[in-house]
Amino acid sequence: MPDPAKRCADVILRVHRLARTGALIDLGRLEHAKMVAAQARQVDVDGWLWEVIPAARTVYLQAAPEHLDEILVRLRDAPVAAVVQQERRLVEIPVRYDGQDLDYVAEQLRMDVDTFVHRHSTTEYEVEFFGFAPGQAFFGELPDDLRLPRRSVPRTRVPSGALAIANEFTIIYPEQSPGGWHLIGHRAGPPLWDPHADPPSRLRIGDRIRFRDVT
Fold first, then answer.
1. Are 97 and 182 contacting, i.e. CB atoms less than 8 angstroms apart?
2. pLDDT class for 5, splitting at 50, 70, 90?
3. Mean pLDDT of the chain, nearest integer
């Protein structure tokens, strides 16, 4: 548990001002990004913030330009506190573990494929943030023994729906795109992102995620 006496200023590494309305806050850890994002919403008692967007190790704030400095002062002085979890949905995503990197991943992790599939599919994840491409959710965190760095040479084309891992995250590519993650399978159910739907994403930050193996 974080120390309640510690201020957000103690975990903020840098603040980059972006034009008149934006600030990008650098943090060292995912849990700090989640806590600082939560505190930013808490200190905005006047409704000056327009957007709070957490990522793996950053938080982006956008606010009325005449009030952004005041929000940053309040945020730095706010205590670091555990994120209070509201009741969260459990979303089950059917997947097939048939990715072209699956054997390589298991070999690098020093386990057989069945063990990897069991470990990956029985872990519960959380939608931590969206990024890289519209609708691309980052599911965290992978257990330590399932983590690998990104590929040294990215692929120029990864198919839509590919299930992939790198570092502490799992993703499902929402569209065909380049990518440097290890492909372990693919989505077996309906798309998670439809730009013509309302809302376009079936997922939201904080959702609990389980991958159901239908291989």
1. no
2. very low
3. 91
Q: Rounded CA gap, 133 and 177, in Å?
A: 9
Domain layout of the chain by residue ranges: 8-77, 90-213
Q: Is it the case that residue 2 has pLDDT exceeding 50?
A: no
Model's pTM, two decimal places?
0.78
Range 8-77 has CATH code 3.30.450.40:
no
Residue 199: Cβ within 10 Å count = 9
Tokens, residue 119: 């470990």
> Measured between alpha carbons, how far is 143 from 71 in angstroms, rounded to an integer?
35
Pairwise CA distance, residues 147 & 105, whole Å: 9
Pick the CATH number of 90-213 from 3.50.50.60, 2.60.40.10, 3.30.110.40, 2.40.100.10: 2.40.100.10
Query: How many C-beta atoms surround the C-beta of residue 79 within 10 A?
Result: 15
pLDDT tens digits, one per residue of 109-147:
999 999 999 999 999 999 998 988 888 999 999 999 999
